Amino acid sequence: MGTHPGGVPERISDEVSCAAFLCVRRWPDGFVCPACGGSRSVTLKSRPRLFECLDCGRQTSLTAGTAMHRSKLPLTTWFWAAHVMATHSNGMSARQLEDQLGVTYKTAWLLGQKLRRSMVDPDRDLLEGVVEVDQTEIPFRAGNAFFEPGAAGKILVAGAVEVIDRSAGRRKPRRKGAKYLDTRSGRLRLAVITDNTAKSIEAFVRANVKPGATLITDGHAAYPGLSGEYRHDPRVVGNMAANVVLPWSHRAFSLLKRWALGTYHGLRRKHADAYLDEFVFRYNRRFYRHVSFETVLGLAAHRTPETYRDIVNRDAPHKRANPPRATTYRRP
Ligand SMILES: [Zn+2]
Question: Fewer CB near the terminus (10 Å): N or C of the chain?
Answer without folding.
Answer: N
